Amino acid sequence: MQTWIPYWLPGETAHASAVDLLFIGLLVSSALVLLLLFALLFRFAIHYRASNADADRDHRIRKSWHWEVSWTAATLVAFLALFVWGAQLYLNLQAPPADALPVYVVAQQWMWKVQHPGGQREINELHVPLGPTMRLLMSSQDVIHSFFIPAFRIKHDVVPGTTQSIWFRPRKPGVFHLFCAEYCGTDHSRMTGRIVVMEQPAFEQWLARQDVTGTLAAEGGRLYRSLGCGGCHGAGSTVRAPALDGLYGRPVPLSDGTVEIADERFIRDAILKPRDKIAAGYQPLMPSYQGKISEDELIRITAYIKSLAGEPGPPQ
Ligand code: CUA
Question: Per residue in 200-230, pLDDT tens?
Answer without folding.
Answer: 999 988 888 877 777 878 888 888 888 878 7
